[in-house]
Specification:
- By secondary structure, the chain is mainly beta.
- It folds into 5 domains: 95 residues, Immunoglobulin-like, CATH 2.60.40; 70 residues, no CATH class; 138 residues, no CATH class; 165 residues, no CATH class; 65 residues, no CATH class.
- Helices cover 9% and strands 32% of the residues.
- It contains 6 helices and 27 strands.
- The strands form 7 sheets. A 7-stranded mixed β-sheet has the order 18-23-24-26-25-27-21, covered by helices on one side.
- A hairpin with a 2-residue loop joins β15 and β16.
Length: 657
Amino acid sequence: MSGSRVNALFLGNSSEVNFSLILSPIDEETGKLQHSNCSGSRRAGDWNLSVVPGVNTSKVTVSLSRNLQLCLPNATDCCTTPLCVAETLQVLACHGSVRLAHLLIQAEIYANSSFVGNVSENATIIPNQAFQPLGSCPCDLTAGACDVRCCCDLECTPDLKQLFTGSCFTAVFGGDVNPPFDQLCSAKSMDTPDWFPFLCVQSSLDNTPFLGYFYHGSISTPREPSFKIPLQTSPGRVFAGYRQGDPIMTEENDYFTVPQQSMAGQCVGNAPVAYLQNFDVRCLTHLASYREGLPHDVRINSGTGDFIQQNVIYGTITDIDKFITKSESPPTTEVPCKNVTFAEYYKFICDDKNIKEINVTVFLGSLCDGEILTQRFTVTFVSLYSTNETELSGNPGYQVGKPVRAANLNDSDTFGSLKLWQPAGRGLCTSATYTPVLFGVDSLSGCVLEVGINEDCNFLRGNVTEKLNSLIQATHVGKRGNSNYSDLNDWVQIIRVDPYNSDTNVSTGNLKGICSDIPANLNIRIIIADVGAVQGIPQQEILAVQISYSTVIWQFQCGLTCENLNFLPITASVQFIKVPAQPPIPLTRFQINYTEFDCDRNDVCWPQLFYPLTRFYTGREPYSLCLAKGLALAFLFLLAAIMSNPWFQKVWNNSLV
């Protein structure tokens, strides 16, 4: 453990079980675990043991009750060294004098270096960043406390710096706020080319691009961010319609919002709905923090400048156990119960870039104080010309986030599927549900398979292979999002690489509980490419699909006690590999051998020496002036070459005689 509290679970009925805590149960001379009896108490030294009994599970908590602050001068009841606690504990569960279970804990806890004291309220004067760095130690983020790995932090004592010596932050964040730039003459190193002294910059170290001396940009007035954006409608001009990823707008020029999950895992109530991007989220709330969302009488911009009304159907939740869980916190509101929204299902019916219809199903229920509600919000986009059985994933190319179309062309029922596990509860494969493979989304999922110690290896290999093959119920995958089942050219065959040869008898030896070559990992690689564009939108297509297996060696493992069952985790991964539609032009022998002439790798690009003389140059001077200057410079070079020739000297001398 590394904190001041550790939790564990005791499985079984604990009504007649006595729990005790023992400090330092390891013999210092022999290093072995001492024999402990069941006559201990729930307190040992600075440690306390508490047990919260349940029906078939009890929560066991071991906590530290001492102060973890690092000692200040003339202070007591504190930590004298950074490593404050280094002790070994043992938790016993006994029934009378019979020991049922034990837990060994190795505690190493370092002192808390958080700041304790008064904080000054004086205003900080921020210097002009164009002339000096804002802070000499950017990694110093905590006032009055030592920041780990920040060696320039003045609050870090030498003892604390020894904990992270050799792992300090580098570059600007680590305190080197004014490094010399590469083009400075004084920054010459062993790797600089021979022409560096002719093109380097003679400047003071205070003149640095990190402070903005080289680029004085114009001052722009900051604008307040707003969820309101001007519509693209004007007299005589029609709204251009939605593209995939565009936010859906309302009649008031606001974003149409539905609660969604952020990158941090929290639910955001005013998240805009993106066009053609489905989602299904669940948000936790209780009565005190419940907020109503966007009203359902808001009209939506269809994409052509017209506005459509939502078709709302209200229902009542009958089985509230799927949405409500009891909270252990005390009541926080005066209102005991309230009628709230349990679930909202949005179905957008679309035609290319326009929205034709919006159907909303809202389920209501009663939420009382002390209960936790799991709200569900679902948004689905459906094509106007497709049914539920033939839902398209794009037209013609795939749309990111849509299911990959699959087919079983060797069967009379051509419908197929590519799925991944969506485990729940204990994560067992027998109780796991499925989710489709989404185009352009790399995924990894898995579940746990129960395996006995006397399991036959050949049977285990077949069982695991059967579980993995259940995810691939298809022989072909659609090239495009609108692939037709009756056209074989719209599909690509799945390339399968078998995990092992079933005809070959794999020797398992005489070892019990060990099986080799178990195909525990399913790898799905899908090669995609941009094959064109429709109205400026790139169209993506699937070129090939390969399915392979990765094998592992399974070995039965025991914990504190050995049981007849063990677990084998099996996984399935999906990787989308994007390749160019046409193979790139191979490098010539000159480009491979003479890399100093590569403009992408060097600061000086000799092949572009005459670039200012070409029409591609877009500098401040007009093309005619650049051409005139270039010709004049070429004439001077030519004149110098002629005058330096010996025969020119003879002609010049003869002309003077």
